[in-house]
Design a protein that fits this description.
215 residues, alpha/beta, Rossmann fold, seven-stranded mixed β-sheet
């Protein structure tokens, strides 16, 4: 079975990557070795294929995030984690691709900041509990990891989550299991305090975003 992992991109980039991107769904005990090979291969390029700027939702809501330790899940090339590090956060990034994480370190250096990283198979990992002030996950869908994310933040800490929602199926053809259902993020974090939520659709892509605080 193929599992798919998506990182944020403009429509042209998504079209370019459609045949090679992996999207991780719940229920699989291990990521395929081909996942790592595929992402290492895609990141073996000087160009940052998803850009170097953070997702807009993160940038616009930076003031809501408690300063401290951040876990950037599926960090990839590091644009979101590096942005937070440059704004005074202590950032740890995890991803299956060592090549991507190496690019994240280069991006951090270019921005005059530092991050720490670990190569991790997210489908076979256990996140530490009550450790982080912020847990960040963008464009990586593994539903059975969400409970771990919620436990990984300290009381008063927040989870920032963004990925494609069902409306994106109007613009792309892929399995509905790989996108958020209507209001699914709100349901996932029903036991958290919702600080910000959006369901975005600009006519070319559609995604949902949330910042949810642990009580």
């Amino acid at each position: 079975m193929n599992h798919f992992k998506i990182k944020p991109a403009r429509a042209a980039v998504v079209l370019f990557l459609a045949s090679v991107v992996l999207f991780s769904t719940s229920g699989a005990p291990f990521a395929s070795p081909r996942d790592k090979e595929r992402w290492d291969s895609k990141y073996e390029n000087e160009v940052y294929i998803f850009g170097t700027e953070p997702v807009r939702f993160l940038r616009e809501n930076l003031a809501l995030l408690p300063k401290g330790k951040v876990l950037d899940i599926a960090m990839g090339e590091g644009r979101n984690g590096v942005y937070l590090a440059a704004n005074g956060f202590e950032v740890e990034g995890i991803d299956i691709s060592e090549v991507g994480l190496n690019k994240a370190h280069k991006l951090a250096e270019q921005n005059g900041t530092k991050i720490t990283t670990r190569v991790v198979d997210l489908e076979n990992t256990q996140l530490p509990e009550s450790t982080y002030d912020v847990v960040l996950c963008t464009y990586y869908m593994q539903r059975d990891l969400v409970p771990q994310m919620k436990k990984a933040v300290k009381p008063g800490g927040v989870v920032v989550f963004e990925t494609y929602n069902a409306d994106y199926l109007k613009y792309r053809q892929f399995n509905p299991k790989w996108v958020l259902k209507d209001n699914e993020l709100l349901e996932m974090f029903r036991d958290f305090k919702i600080l910000r939520y959006q369901a975005y659709d600009d006519g070319t892509e559609a995604y949902s975003s949330i910042i949810a605080q642990r009580n």
